[in-house]
Structure formats: structure tokens, C-alpha cells
Design a protein that fits this description.
200 residues; alpha+beta; Flavocytochrome B2, Chain A, domain 1; four-stranded mixed β-sheet; 8 helices; 4 strands; binds protoporphyrin IX containing FE; steroid binding
């Protein structure tokens, strides 16, 4: 007796089915299994990138990631902007998204970009951004005419309030420069009697 007829006899004996019926049912079960299992993703494949993603795309996304890391690292270096006039400081009021947000207190300029929600456009304290804000902070005032560095007529309590703000800023933000006086007309050749007053 050949192996084939022995197998057929065993199948008939075990299943009670004719060989044709048995093989038809087995084939149908394989088809159903393949169809159903193709609808699911195995846990190992779940985290793999889609097969359709080419090697070029993978290396592109890796280099994008590296560029982001580089940009973050570069941006985290403390800036040093050095001497600046009040006029120059105004460029850092948030109107240019590529520039840091700066505030001056007692002539020291702080980079407050990390608190964009306070000092960025529309922020509750954005009126101080790009300005020397000592007087306003000392007086706890939002009045435009107080947003300047004039401390002449302030009393000891107000100066203490200002010192507390200074301590807070020194602790929280990097100093990136200091304010210098606007050049006086006499300092500039050919400026005649033009004045350099700053409106607030
Ligand atoms: C109704 C009065 C006020 C309320 C309820 C208030 C509330 C707040 C709150 C909740 C913060 C966030 C604090 C933090 O998370 O560190 C804050 C920050 C600040 N406030 Fe006020 N504030 C008031 C008045 C003022 C006034 C009058 C000034 C100055 C003129 C001022 C200047 C500031 C500044 C500069 C910051 C940001 C400090 C930083 O950079 O961390 N606030 N305020």
C-alpha cells in the first residue's frame, strides 16, 4: 500500500470525510485564515515604519531630526547682544518673530523669550517688551508714560519693589546686554540740532 492511499484511509477513518471533502475544507480554512489575519497588524510590526517609506525618506527624517536637535542646541546658547540704545531695543518687542524678546531693567537687558505668553504679542505684559520698564515695574503701572527708565522721583518703597523685580529677572532670565545713552546730536556729525527723544 502506498503512502498516499494509507493517508487517505487514515483521513477517512479519523474525520469520516471523503478525501475530496477533507482537502476542500482544509483549503477553505487556509483561505479564511489568510484573509482574516491580513486585516490585523502584528505587535512586532506595529512600531516599524510603513514598508512604503523609502530609505531616502527614512534618512531624510533622520537628518530633519538632527537639524532640529542642532537648532535647539544652538538656540539654547545664551545670546550676547552687548550695548544697545533704547531705540535699538525696540526692535526686540516681538514684532519680528525671528528676534528674541528683550526687556531692560535698570539698564540691564534680559532675554525674556522663554516667557512668550507674558511678553510676546498679545501677552499680558507685552507693553514692556522692547522697552526699559524700570519705572513701570517700580510703580506697578501699565501707563505708557511710565514705561521708561526715569527713577528720579521714586521713593524707597518703590525702589525696593523695583529691586525685587530685578532679583526675579536676574534669577529667571539671561542678561544679554546693557542700555547705552542715545547719541546726543553733538556726538553725530552733520545732525544739526535734531533731537533723539524717545516717545513711550
Ligand atoms: C491684578 C493685578 C495682577 C495680577 C492678578 C497679576 C498676576 C500675575 C501672575 C499670575 C503672573 C504669573 C506669575 C508666574 O507664573 O511667575 C504675573 C506675572 C507678572 N506680572 Fe503680574 N499681576 C498683576 C499686576 C501686575 C502689575 C501691576 C505689574 C507691573 C506693572 C505686573 C507685572 C508682572 C510681570 C512683569 C510678570 C512676569 C514675571 C516673569 O517674567 O516671570 N503684574 N502676574
Amino acid at each position: 500500500m502506498g503512502i498516499y492511499s494509507a493517508a487517505v484511509e487514515e483521513i477517512t477513518w479519523y474525520t469520516g470525510l471523503s478525501p475530496a471533502a477533507f482537502f476542500t475544507i482544509a483549503a477553505l480554512m487556509v483561505v479564511v485564515y489568510k484573509t482574516v489575519s491580513s486585516m490585523f497588524v502584528s505587535p512586532e510590526d506595529f512600531n516599524k515604519p510603513p514598508v512604503a517609506m523609502s530609505i531616502e525618506k527614512i534618512s531624510q527624517s533622520n537628518s530633519d531630526f538632527l537639524n532640529n536637535v542642532m537648532a535647539t542646541t544652538t538656540n539654547s546658547q545664551p545670546l550676547q547682544l552687548g550695548d544697545m540704545t533704547e531705540q535699538q531695543l525696540r526692535a526686540y518687542n516681538g514684532s519680528d518673530p525671528n528676534k528674541p524678546l528683550l526687556i531692560s531693567i535698570k539698564g540691564q537687558i534680559y532675554d525674556v523669550s522663554s516667557s512668550r505668553m507674558f511678553y510676546g504679542p498679545g501677552g499680558a505684559y507685552s507693553m514692556f517688551t522692547g522697552k526699559e520698564a524700570s519705572r513701570a515695574l517700580a510703580l506697578l503701572s501699565f501707563k505708557p508714560q511710565d514705561i521708561n527708565g526715569n527713577l528720579e522721583d521714586l521713593g524707597p518703597e518703590e525702589l525696593q519693589v523695583l529691586e525685587d523685580w530685578e532679583d526675579k529677572f536676574t534669577e529667571k532670565y539671561a542678561k544679554v546686554g546693557q542700555l547705552v545713552r542715545e547719541p546726543m546730536p553733538a556726538d553725530q556729525a552733520g545732525c544739526g540740532d535734531e533731537t533723539h527723544e524717545i516717545e513711550n
